[in-house]
Design brief:
Layout (H helix, E strand, L loop, with lengths): L1 H8 L31 E6 L5 H14 L2 E2 L2 E2 L6 E5 L4 H10 L7 E4 L5 H10 L7 H16 L8 E5 L13 H18 L2 E7 L21 H6 L3 E6 L2 E2 L5 E2 L2 E6 L6 E7 L5 E3 L9 H11 L11 H11 L3 H13 L3 E3 L5 E3 L7
Parallel strand pairs: 1-7, 1-8, 4-5, 4-6, 6-7
Antiparallel strand pairs: 2-3, 8-11, 9-10, 11-12, 12-13, 14-15
Helix pairs in contact: 4-5, 5-6, 8-10
Length: 355
């Protein structure tokens, strides 16, 4: 009897039930259905200055609103973030504003503005010594950067650029590039995110016959970039004619693993962001060009008045008299390039309908 009472006094411990792994929320979709797939590493490549960041900014607006990229309908993504592994964060914020995107909606982390990351990077030497310890240090450095973004499941993250900062050794060698991409593939699954990593084309010879025919083959470490990424996107600026003017569209090739590759033709609007080639506006005459230029000189983030100092500055910049400044103001308002408040102050509209 006493044994039964002692048994009854023992705390009742429930068996531990296995915990199911978290399920992907059903509303999370591919950034571009079937083209840029959820939880994958994708590569955007091009020459320096060709417009890779501007292309991402152009697409960012569509991903934040659920619009269209070329002919593809895209979902509104829960979060977009950028790891800016160069020194152009202010430029990126400026381009976001020109695209009509509030920069506060896109988290930007710059590793080399972070003293803690500097210490991690200097101590790891993963670019000079290829050992298991430095490979672990590389993974830790990438994880640290991702942690600064407070990512939600389904986030789309740009590594702009991935080279040379996050390469385990020589960025021109496929065997050194591959470990980075393998780490990123693993972290995409672990964090439930999608990555676009930006890489640069290597220097090409002037003679077109002496270059790689495929744009994706021009990437430093291209064998690994192609082998360990899901979709490759390349960007080629228009060729320049004998006068130095760009002639023709900007080409963007998209090569997914499970779809036929496509080549998109883009042109740029008055600001420099990309738009479909078929929507290219008629060339502006000299006066129309001055009106657009006038509008671009007006701030977009605050209303301003055309006071004496501002008018004198605009006269110098545009090479016209005061009366013409007022004409440009009137025409720019008609064209939807500017808006005015009840006090008559004006500001630039960053995404005018005419584009």
């Amino acid at each position: 009897m006493s044994d039964n009472k002692a048994e009854a006094r023992k705390p009742q411990v429930k068996p531990i039930e296995p915990i199911d792994p978290p399920k992907k929320p059903p509303e999370l979709l591919d950034p571009i259905p079937g083209i840029l797939r959820y939880e994958t590493v994708n590569v955007l490549s091009g020459e320096s200055g060709a417009g890779k960041t501007r292309l991402l900014i152009t697409w960012t607006k569509q991903w934040l609103t659920g619009g269209h990229i070329w002919k593809w309908a895209v979902p509104a993504l829960p979060q977009i973030a950028i790891i800016g592994a160069d020194d152009h964060a202010e430029d990126t914020r400026w381009w976001l504003e020109q695209a009509g995107v509030d920069p506060a909606r896109v988290k930007i982390y710059q590793p080399f503005e972070d003293p803690n990351f500097k210490r991690i990077h200097q101590a790891s030497v993963f670019q000079t010594a290829r050992t298991p310890a430095t490979l672990a240090a590389l993974r830790a450095a990438i994880l640290y950067c991702l942690a600064q973004l407070n990512l939600q499941p389904g986030a789309l993250v740009y590594f702009d650029p991935i080279t040379p900062l996050f390469i385990w050794g020589d960025g021109n060698k496929a065997k050194d590039v591959a470990p980075t991409l393998l780490i990123l593939k693993e972290l995409c699954k672990e964090k439930h995110i999608t990555l676009i990593v930006v890489v640069h084309h290597g220097k090409q010879k002037a003679d077109p016959k002496d270059r790689y025919a495929r744009h994706e083959d021009r990437v430093a470490g291209s064998h690994a970039v192609i082998a360990f990424s899901t979709t490759q996107i390349w960007l080629a600026a228009p060729e320049e004619d004998e006068t130095g003017e760009e002639n023709g569209p900007t080409l963007v090739g998209v090569k997914p693993r499970r779809q036929k590759p496509v080549v998109i033709q883009y042109c740029t609007d008055a600001v420099g962001l990309f738009m479909d080639w078929g929507e290219k506006p008629e060339p502006l005459n000299a006066e129309e060009d001055r009106i657009v230029t006038f509008a671009l000189l007006i701030p977009a983030d605050t209303f301003v008045t055309l006071d004496k100092a501002r008018i004198e500055t605009l006269e110098r910049q545009l090479g016209v008299k005061r009366a013409r400044i007022y004409e440009y103001r009137r025409e720019a308002l008609k064209l939807g390039l500017l808006e005015a408040n009840e006090d008559g102050a004006i500001r630039r509209i960053v995404d005018p309908q005419r584009h």
